[in-house]
Amino acid sequence: MSMEEYIVKDGKKLRLGYTTGSCAAAASKAAAWMLLTGRLKEKIRISTPKGITLDLEVLQISMEENTVSCAIKKDSGDDPDVTKGSLVFAQVTRTKTPGITIDGGRGVGRVTKQGLDQSVGAAAINSVPRQMIRENLEEVCRLTDYRGGLSVLISVPDGERLAKKTFNPRLGIVDGISILGTTGIVEPMSEQALIDTIRLELRQRKANNMEYVLLTPGNYGSDYIKNGIGIDPKIAVLTSNFIGEALDICREMGFRGALLIGHIGKLVKIAGGMLNTHSKYGDCRMDIMAAHAGAAGLSSSCIEEILDCATCDDAIRILQENNLCTQTLHRISNRISFIMDYRVAGEIKTGSIIFSKKYGFLSETKNARSLLKLITEE
Predict the structure, then answer these.
(1) Angle at 167 between CA 225 and CA 240, to 5 degrees
(2) CB neighbours (10 Å) of residue 230?
(3) DSSP 3-state of 128
(4) Helices within the chain (DSSP H only)
(5) Residue 37 pairs with which residues in a beta bridge?
(6) 235 is in which domain, residue-wise?
(7) What contacts 119, CB < 8 A, 6 or more positions away?
(8) How far is the C-alpha of 281 from the C-alpha of 335, rounded, in Å?
(9) Residue 12: what pLDDT?
(10) Nearby residues of 37 by Cβ (< 8 Å), 6 or more positions away
(11) Is 1 part of any domain?
(12) Within a domain: residue 243?
């Protein structure tokens, strides 16, 4: 059963969905109802923390005397979520011990590293979904006047396969997906979800007593960290386009320093004050390259060539041909250093290393080497 709630983003009408946490809570409530009443329940209603009520179809029901299992199909709306269409199962069992216990079964990940929402060894069922499950089961217990205990086991049969497409392996969550959701509702193409992932990774580093952190926008940076610098790229936190937000979180969490390693195509935008480097916010790459090249002494005709370039690598070629590459990139690095320091209000040490896939190392800020040394020694 699909949701019929919508939002408008960038002029497009997009359908909302519901989280794996909502699926787990709904399946748990339905299973508990059938267990404690002995009656079939083919549709279940829950309220989400966002205030939206969901009426969901209950699937694959299995009823026994002391255990009931059923599933809810995940619907992420118009968001391209990897769990879309997956079945989230809840098995609810009577227990002699009063209270409600919640655990993860097949396809639900286990936490192996500190700093995550759940402690090491626990099932990767986050706090809000656990609260939703507990509150819905307590409601059913009140309605049926049941005073015994209930055990809930959440499983996702294809969770282990799906987890390979998520951040879980990087975060130290093994053998399955996480049961997530702070509002119970999925908003399509949510930038907040990406920022929350950055925060999660940084919190994990902080929990491991790291004082200095390595940041990179994506796969190009990870490849360069591995092959160009020779260190394990897993130590880096992937920021995607959200470099400003990542720096904000580093400052908020009290890190002493942050080193950003990235491709010239991303990092040159920072020199123009763009700390969200997504192309939808603008593309000032050639303008910045041309401005600093002109300040370094490049002729007006060559500046025009740079402004017509499609890639930063092509602009670098022009700079090299005119023996102004080092000077221009030095100016750009200084500007990046200024912008990053300004974003963190000088409260933490920042630095950056710029590279190109074609030309390799290009430039670095004054603090880059010392920060890299501190990071690798931690």
Answers:
(1) 55
(2) 8
(3) helix
(4) 20-37, 127-144, 159-163, 168-171, 191-207, 219-224, 243-253, 264-270, 285-295, 300-307, 312-321, 325-343, 368-377
(5) none
(6) 191-377
(7) 111
(8) 20
(9) 67
(10) 144
(11) no
(12) yes
Provide the CB-side half-sphere exposure for 246 (13 A, CA): 27
pLDDT one-digit tens code per residue, 275-311: 999 877 888 999 999 999 999 999 999 999 999 987 8
CATH number of the domain that residue 173 is part of: 3.30.2110.10
- Counted residue by residue, the chain has a size of 378
215 and 139, same domain (yes or no): no
Q: How far is CA 75 from CA 94, 202, 298, in A?
A: 29, 29, 55
Same domain? 220 vs 344: yes
Token reading at 220:
């190009």
How buried is 333 (Cβ within 10 angstroms: 0-12 exposed, 13-18 middle, 19+ buried)? buried
**Which helix (H) or strand (E) element contains residue 53?**
strand 53-57
From 152, 186, 220, give the residue that closes a domain.
186
Q: How many C-beta neighbours within 10 Å does residue 146 have?
A: 16
Taking the C-alpha atoms of residue 371 and residue 378, their distance in angstroms, rounded to an integer, is 11
Domain endpoint, select from 186, 209, 226: 186
- Among the listed residues 188, 145, 141, the one whose alpha carbon sits nearest the alpha carbon of residue 32: 141
DSSP-based three-state secondary structure for 151: strand
- The DSSP line for 184-233 is SEEPTT-HHHHHHHHHHHHHHHHHTT-SEEEEESSHHHHHHIIIII-S-G
Summarize pLDDT for 217-274 with one digit per residue, the tens: 988 899 999 999 999 999 999 999 999 999 999 999 999 999 999 999 999 999 999 9
Take residue 164 and report the two structure tokens written for it: 């390979």
